[in-house]
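Input/output pair, single chain:
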Amino acid sequence: MLGSLLVCLGLAAVRVHAAQKPPEYRRIGEIAVGGDTGWDYLSIDPDARRLYVTHGSHIVVIDLDAGRTVGDIPDTPGVHGFAIARDLGRGFSSNGAEAKVSVVELATLKTLGKIGTQEGPDAILYEPGRKEVYAFDGRAHAATVISAPTGEVVATLPLPGKPEFAAADPAANRVFVNIEDKNEIVAIDTAQHQIANTWPIAPGESASGMAFDATQHRLFIGCENKLMLMIDSTNGKVIASVPIGSGVDANAFDPELHLAFSSNGEGTVTIAHEGSPRS
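Output:
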């Protein structure tokens, strides 16, 4: 397994689709992590300048400015994701091997307690509008909705298939999640804790990563058939697609440069430039 993280402005190879010359991306170093287990999601707390790396049965905490490990959150069996609620000073990990979410105090990295979910929690996000955590239970085809301030499970929402990555739009009272095995996106009404819409993603297939531009209401979806889609989050319409590398997992969006990123398992990053809604 890998023992360090690449710190980069780009990885081994970069495919660029842009109407203008993009900034240059290059590798600038590595941060040693160690251990012999794999990792899954990375979560950044920009205010605290910390990176949380889920790593098998624990979460490694890295100081971004110093470029070194500064803490560890233990006892998170089969951890996949870590959702940060900065306004509450808490973080929430999805522990897939035990069907629980750990509640962590960010200042001390102390585990305050655990909350039961359905089977196989994987992706997890904090929805700041209603101060709720969504744990997406992959094997159960469900979402467990948790009150972040109290730790109470407020809803268990059945989903039409296996949920993968998700994004929140608090202004629209929506959470969006890929349904990987059905080639669909589900839009969840966060006020009602119900499915509001289900949208097909053709020509995309088996969507994994998701990123969101809240200003232009665009979802960026990484698909296993080597496409990244741009989708209108208000109506589910597929607006555009670009080719990407194989083995996509996560996606990201830079709102300042209007660039969407696809991390590809083949060892590349694809970067696409987002045009205006009229272009």
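Residues 1-19 have pLDDT under 50 and may be disordered. The longest strand covers residues 79-85.
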